[in-house]
C-alpha cells in the first residue's frame, strides 16, 4: 500500500511534529492549514515531495476541495491525522456564542468532515488508518474550558462509534489525548504554576505526542482506543 497521509493542522505544533516523523518514515504528506504560506514552509522544511493545501476544516466545501486536490496531486489518501484545533478559554457565562460555534466547528465538526471525506477512498480500497487528536480535558473536564472539553469529549464518542462502523472495512480510528504540550496553543499559560500539578512536573513536547500518533496510525490491531499522553495529569485531575 502506498503511504499517503493528510495532516490537518500539520503546519504547526503537534501536527507539524507528526509530519516530521512520518516524512522520515517515507510517507508522502499533505500539510493542511488555513494559512497556506505557513503550511508551505512546513512542507518545504520536510524535504522530499510533500505538498501544502489551504483549508478551513470547519467548511465542508474546503474539505471536499482539499480531498479532490490531494487525490489529484498525491494519490489516494490512506492515512489521516486530525490535529487542527483551537481553544477560546473562558467561563461558560462569559463565552460568546460565536466562540462556542468556532470551537465546535473546528475541533469536532471539522474532524467529522475530514473523516467522512477520507472514508470514500478508504472504503473503496478496504483499508486505512485515522488518528484524531483529542485532549485530556475532553475526558476529565476542566473549568474555564467547557466548550473546548465538549468538543474534545465529543471527538472521543465520534471516533469510537466510527471505529465500530468501519472496522469491517479494515479501517481503524483512534484518538490521542494530550495534556499540556509546548505549542502556540499553550504559550500564554502560566507554566511555572501549572507544571506543579503534573506528576512528571513538566509540559510535554510536540514530538512526544507525535510518537503516540504515529504508533496508533501504524498499529494493526488497535481501534477505538484513546491513548493519553499527559505526564500523568489524568491521575490527579
Ligand atoms: P497549534 O495552535 O500549535 O496548531 C494548530 C494547527 O491547527 C495549526 O496548523 C493551525 O494552522 C491548524 N488549524 C487551526 N484551525 C484550523 C482550521 N479551522 N482549519 C484548518 N487548520 C486549522 O496547536 P497544537 O499543536 O497545540 O494543537 C494540535 C491539536 O492538539 C489541537 O486539536 C489541540 O486542541 C490539541 N491539543 C493540544 C494541547 C496542547 O497543550 N498544545 C493539549 C491537548 C490537545 P492555521 O492556524 O494556519 O489554520
UniProtKB/TrEMBL annotation:
GO molecular function terms attached to this record: 3-oxoacyl-[acyl-carrier-protein] reductase (NADPH) activity; NADPH dehydrogenase (quinone) activity; quinone binding
Associated pathway: Lipid metabolism; fatty acid biosynthesis
Entry GO CC: mitochondrial matrix
Enzyme class: oxidoreductase
Record's subcellular location: Mitochondrion matrix
Ketoreductase domain boundaries: 3-183
Gene Ontology biological process terms, A to Z: fatty acid biosynthetic process
Keyword Mitochondrion attributed: yes
Enzyme Commission number(s) from the entry: 1.1.1.100, 1.6.5.10
InterPro entries: KR_dom (IPR057326), NAD(P)-bd_dom_sf (IPR036291), Sc_DH/Rdtase_CS (IPR020904), SDR_fam (IPR002347)
Record note on quaternary structure: Homotetramer (in vitro). Heterotetramer with HSD17B8; contains two molecules each of HSD17B8 and CBR4. Does not form homotetramers when HSD17B8 is coexpressed, only heterotetramers (in vitro).
PANTHER family documented for this protein: 3-OXOACYL-[ACYL-CARRIER-PROTEIN] REDUCTASE, SHORT-CHAIN DEHYDROGENASES/REDUCTASES FAMILY MEMBER
The protein's name: 3-oxoacyl-[acyl-carrier-protein] reductase
Source organism of the structure: Orycteropus afer afer
Recorded name of the encoding gene: CBR4
Amino acid at each position: 500500500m502506498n503511504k499517503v497521509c493528510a495532516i490537518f493542522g500539520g503546519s504547526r505544533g503537534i501536527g507539524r511534529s507528526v509530519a516530521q516523523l512520518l516524512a522520515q518514515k517515507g510517507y508522502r504528506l499533505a500539510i493542511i492549514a488555513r494559512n497556506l504560506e505557513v503550511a508551505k514552509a512546513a512542507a518545504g522544511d520536510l524535504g522530499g515531495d510533500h505538498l501544502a493545501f489551504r483549508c478551513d476544516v470547519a467548511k465542508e466545501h474546503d474539505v471536499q476541495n482539499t480531498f479532490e486536490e490531494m487525490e489529484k496531486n498525491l494519490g489516494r489518501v490512506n492515512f489521516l491525522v486530525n490535529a487542527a484545533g483551537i481553544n477560546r478559554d473562558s467561563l461558560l457565562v462569559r463565552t460568546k456564542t460565536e466562540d462556542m460555534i468556532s470551537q465546535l466547528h473546528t475541533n469536532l465538526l471539522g474532524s467529522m468532515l475530514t473523516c467522512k471525506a477520507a472514508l470514500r477512498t478508504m472504503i473503496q480500497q478496504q483499508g486505512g488508518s485515522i488518528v484524531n487528536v483529542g485532549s485530556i480535558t475532553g475526558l476529565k473536564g476542566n473549568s474555564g474550558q467547557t466548550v473546548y472539553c465538549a468538543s474534545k469529549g465529543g471527538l472521543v464518542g465520534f471516533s469510537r462509534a466510527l471505529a465500530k462502523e468501519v472496522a469491517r472495512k479494515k479501517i481503524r480510528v483512534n484518538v490521542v489525548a494530550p495534556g499540556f504540550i509546548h505549542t502556540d496553543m499553550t504559550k500564554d499559560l502560566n507554566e511555572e504554576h501549572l507544571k506543579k500539578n503534573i506528576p512528571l512536573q513538566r509540559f510535554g513536547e510536540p514530538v512526544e505526542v507525535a510518537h503516540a500518533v504515529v504508533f496508533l496510525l501504524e498499529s494493526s490491531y488497535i481501534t477505538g482506543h484513546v491513548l493519553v499522553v499527559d505526564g500523568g495529569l489524568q491521575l490527579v485531575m
